[in-house]
Amino acid sequence: MKKFEEKTYHTETIYSGKIVELNIDSVTLPDGNTSKRELIKHPGAVAVIALTPDGKLVCVEQYRKPLEKSLVEIPAGKLEEGEAPYTCALRELEEETGYTTKHLQKLTSFYTSPGFADEIVHLYFTDEVTPLEEKVDGDEDEFVELMELTLEEAEQMEKEQRIHDAKTAYALLFLKLQRDK
Amino acid sequence: MKKFEEKTYHTETIYSGKIVELNIDSVTLPDGNTSKRELIKHPGAVAVIALTPDGKLVCVEQYRKPLEKSLVEIPAGKLEEGEAPYTCALRELEEETGYTTKHLQKLTSFYTSPGFADEIVHLYFTDEVTPLEEKVDGDEDEFVELMELTLEEAEQMEKEQRIHDAKTAYALLFLKLQRDK
């Protein structure tokens, strides 16, 4: 048995939508008692730390409905059904920024909210981007604006909470570490 | 109007539970078309980067039902209704690790999954912990095991994906940057 495993004895699917599925699992706890867990299923996502030839970080600003405000983030998006993370990362980079690359390096992956959701973000890095010759269209209900930021500009935006999400915060620490090497 | 704002003209609450609420918002997009957004409301959370006097990172291992496996993470937990993040951070540190502190420094905050959820994590730091004289009980349906890790041990666990969540990945980069200073 896995450590502290919680065995499911009943699953109720509350909602199954375009992006998330919500299940309520009834579980048996390690001490034999029972509890309920609210669980969000998500297809997973990718994000790309992309640097332009002059060392600027490629970001996009977009409206984030759950927060009712715009955030500046590194390009990212969710996996289509059956899509490999690498393919998705390249697609999102092209759609959201108009850049492409031949060298996309996998850095790491992490779960964003392991307490209630299974969303995983696969994080990639490239410092070799070139502009696409022809623009690629993204999702028709997605509106994003490209930004290219020095690390200092990005850190200033973080102070102002215009950059305010986990993957972009991680990206800024990663770049700071690289620079200090 | 906020940049790229999406105006809600209808909200349907699908589920309102102990931790999450799921709403479907019907929205008008910046180009006048309409779309639907699946939105998870979450009370918000805290996490603590806590170092023992000998410089080890205080972590807890716990079963994460959404992933059906145990993860090793920095201590964390969700805000109770009306609870201040600082109070919550101290409470979670005490409940999950048996340590307390008089010096809890706010580092930053970030949204974990801005595409579909409003969960925010408030991140704190302390390198001055002392063991509690009397153990404080945490949630009755929560089972955690304390671990104290050197940065090298934690990085090894990250390679093995036993450490595999955004806030702890951020914490390891933060500590690496501190050490390299």
TrEMBL record, chains A, B:
SUPFAM superfamilies: Nudix. One of its GO terms (molecular function) is hydrolase activity. Its cofactor is Mg(2+). Residues 40-176 form the Nudix hydrolase domain. Keywords: Hydrolase. GO terms for biological process: nucleoside phosphate metabolic process; ribose phosphate metabolic process. InterPro entries: NUDIX_hydrolase-like_dom_sf, NUDIX_hydrolase_CS, NUDIX_hydrolase_dom. This is NUDIX hydrolase.
